[in-house]
Every structure is written in structure tokens, then in C-alpha cells.
Amino acid sequence: MQKRVVLTFDDGPSPEWTPLILDELKKANIKAVFFMIGHHVQKYPEIAKRVVDEGHTIGNHGYAHSVMLYYTPAEIEQEIRYTEHVIKRVTGQTTKLFRPPKAWLRKAIKNKVKEMGYQILLWSLNSKDWVKFNHRYIVRFIEKRVKNGDILLFHDSGSVFSREGADRTQTVKSIPLLAKTLKAKGYQFVSIEELLGVDQKLDKALAF
Ligand SMILES: [Zn+2]
User: Fold this and answer.
1) Which CATH superfamily is domain 3-198 in?
2) Which of 73, 76, 80, 102 is the most exposed place for a label (fewest CB within 10 A)?
């Protein structure tokens, strides 16, 4: 069986970077997952719509990109529901995938998120694109570590200390090179639904 990977992009949508990433994904015929920040969906609705129109999967990444470590279950519910509402209003779609900012969640919160019907999806391989390595380095880093079934983490917005503003040039440039490199190694880029199976519980694949 062919080896498979999924690409995921966090912190968007961004009017500057998401369209460039979408262009590259289209050229490489890859369907990815975009974990969007609710506030950015509200700010850039056209970009969020384009992600959906081009057949990618949307995930919920919270409204304000707050660290959720000290949230109460009620606060997390409010934040996820509000983001859900914004995504639905803007794109007409809903999602049952949630990725917490910085991957930080307490046990009580994880349980709350699952109770709400969400699957918590982390990643298994971090591209570290936020460090601003050259795209050749990013691809080499992934090429050395990639395994069948990996979920790769990239960013289409965000920055180290704020929700947006980072330069994602290297992320954009990584996509065609990564597509070429991994395809040559026998990998196929699949959607998250395809990787995990539509009927399968998504959180089987997770780090939690
Ligand atoms: Zn994030």
C-alpha cells in the first residue's frame, strides 16, 4: 500500500499567505486541513471561503488563539462554539476537528471538547516553519523523519508572539519541493478524511 501523509496549516486565514499556499496546493493537487482562528475568519471571510471552495478541510483553532491551559470547561465551550458559529456563517460549513493553540489542554478540557462532539487533532511531524528556516531545510528536515500516516504541521499565518504578521515565504516555497520530494519517496498526499477513514474515530490517530 502506498504511504500517505496529510498537510495541515494553522493560524489562518491570512490575506497575504493563504492565497499563495492555496495556489501551490492546487498546482500539486493536494487537499490539506486549515485550522483557522475564528477572529481571522471574521476578518478575512473571502479567504476562508476560498479554502472551502477549493475542497480543503477546515478545522477549529479557537477564536483568539489564547493559550487554553487555564480555561474552565465553560470558557472553552464558549470559545469553540463561537468559532464554530463564525465558520458556519462565513463558509456555510461546520467542522468537528479541533486543534488547541500550542497544543495545550488540561484533561478536564479535553473531556469537554470531546463531549461537544469534537475530535482533537494534533500533528505527528512539525515542519518548524515558524522558525523561518529556508524551505530547502524544512523539506530536508521532513524528508529525514517522515513516516507513513504522518500529519504535518505548517502555518499560513500567526507569528511567535502574535496571531498574525509572520513572513510565510518559506512555507509557500516548501510546498512544491515537498510534493516532489515525498512523491519520489512513494508518498501520496491525502485528505484527513481519507487518512483516518470517514467512519473511524479521528482521535485514534492523535497524540492524546
Ligand atoms: Zn496556532
Assistant:
1) Glycoside hydrolase/deacetylase (3.20.20.370)
2) 102
